Amino acid sequence: MIDNRAGAGGIVGTEIAARAPTDGHTIFTYGINQAITAGLQSKLPYDHLRDFSLISLYATMPNILCVTPNLPAANVGEFVKLAKANPGKFKFASSGVGASPHLTMEFFKSVTGIDMIHVPYKNSSQGYIDTITGQIQSFFFNLPGPLPHVKAGRLRALAVTSAKRAEQVPNVPTIIESGIPDFVVTVWQGYAVPRATPQTYVSKIHATMMKALDDPELHRRFFDNGVAAAPTTPEAFRKFVQAETTRWKKVIDISGAKAEQQ
What we know:
This protein is α+β, with helices and mostly antiparallel strands. It has two domains: 8-60 and 187-255, D-Maltodextrin-Binding Protein, domain 2, CATH 3.40.190; 61-160, Periplasmic binding protein-like II (D-Maltodextrin-Binding Protein, domain 2, 3-Layer(aba) Sandwich). It is built from nine helices and eight strands. Strands 1, 2, 3, 4, 5, 6, 7 and 8 form an eight-stranded mixed beta sheet that branches. Helix 2 crosses helix 9 (234-255) and helix 4 packs across helix 9. The protein is globular.
């Protein structure tokens, strides 16, 4: 059974998962939002590292920088030059304050010195539409969402945030290739269980995940949806999350991003 618990930017669902029975029957979809929220919120009803046993990553994807087709910018350099010539006039869409698309653009702004207005959307699709029609000039979004619009030519893709080009859009360069060194953002998801879940259950869930993530059919489905399989050991997953938590806290502090009032 899938139990979707929305609310407070994922805090509600995360707390419920952290307090769930430790019988191996509660598996939590644990992703980049948990690392970001830890740096964005001064007080949380859980500790995202202390209160969970991490199992493995299962999928990663880049964000993609897109602009409205009418904007006279064919690459990242031209976009930055245009934005610098129009400080505070360009708008960028996101899926909400503190989400990875928002903070990726804040990161981009901090390293390029551009000034743009943030427009958060509750519905990402509306952000795509408003960028297509020119009400919004740009955005970073997780690759799968805008991918159909990019392929159809309704949006102009300038770059992806992965270290290497995304196979789904091989003609779109990376941010690093576009002249901004060390700019890599990976959007990720994995699985976790409540902290006190017995190790036998943790090991069994991990083994099941490894088998599933080795399935060529799953790899094909992931590829079609703009993501890549990313199996890890529990230890490697925990180290990764620790590094991501530290990294996004720095981005939040530099950008001055604040949590939405709940």
